[in-house]
Amino acid sequence: MASRARSRSIVIGLALARMALSALTLRRRRPPVTPKRILIAHHLLLGDTIMLTPLLAKCRARWPDADIVMTCPVAYAGLYSARPYGVRALAYDPRDASTLAPVLAERPIDLALLPGDNRLSWLARAAGARWIVAFDGDTPPHKNWPIDELRPYPDAPMAWGDLVAGLIDGPAPAPYQPGDWGGAPPASRFGLPPRPYVVLHVGASSPLKRWPPQRWRRLGKRLGDAGYSVALSAGPGEAALLDQVDHRGLWMRFSGTLSIPELWYLLAGAELVVCPDTGVAHLARLTGVPTVALFGPGSALLSGPGEFWRKSPFAAVTIPDFPCRDQTVTMKRNVAWVRRCERFTGDGPGQCLAPLCMQALTDDMVLHAAAAQLGTSATA
Length: 380
Description:
The protein has helices spanning 2-24, 46-50, 53-62, 100-104, 121-126, 160-164, 213-225, 239-245, 260-268, 279-287, 356-359, 363-374; strands at residues 37-40, 67-72, 87-91, 111-114, 132-135, 149-151, 197-201, 229-234, 252-255, 272-276, 291-294, 314-317, 329-330, 333-334. By secondary structure, the protein is of the alpha/beta class. The strands form 3 sheets. The protein has a 6-stranded parallel sheet.
């Protein structure tokens, strides 16, 4: 807590000083025509971080000679070691003052882009950003004070990755190809399942995104009967979920012990990945592995491939108009066309008693999607 307060005080103090100096000199701020250094500032979850890739690609296409740097949660920084699209990732945690100095050392910055929380506008101004662009609609208002240009969310429904690329003008980036990433991140070697294998990632950040254990068990059996080794995966602290799925210990397990680069290797070697709508689905998309994602409370449109990942082997299993997927908020902004649910489990007002939207995804729906991705009818 002390480190977070220290980091915040440094950021706000520097930002206010730079804003005051700009006011004293009566210098008119203008958007850069050809920025030499660009900062993309965020502190998002894994899936949201990966969904920024269209923005990285678009920046590189528009400004091929620019030095582009992106703040990134510490746990994900290794994913960007190959510098996809020539972007440098800076490990940053607003709760850890020791990660602040490398960001501030990037000044001067010609253009700062804020795809998520606008509170990072203060960090961008502290780092000497000359022009800051963000999306409108974030609250409270003080988050927006350092921002020079607020852009509205689009009126037309689209994937969030395509939407974020709208922070800058210009044509849409070329569709993603796995080679665009520049290579796999370095990782410690570990034992992989016997090939050919499939990965069933059963964990999720919310209990409302979890598919019933017995359905994972039946899916694994069908894939095993079709000749595939089955590997179960879950996040840190979710080992009990694997026990519920595989109580007889028949399959290889990875219970939250892998780093993000190691998880890349596990997914990249698979014939198929099946998972809920989580960061793993987006990580699998980067590697090019065929993926089936189960969407319950999440939006298959908002978190889907959109235009940028349209060539990726991906299938979304969802009930398109599930009645209680009716919330219109994303990234703390009210967007009329968004249909998602961020309720929590519990018996209080407005909470969800059971993940009916996940339970509505039947064995046959997932099996058929898996068979299509594998190019076989053996599992259906």
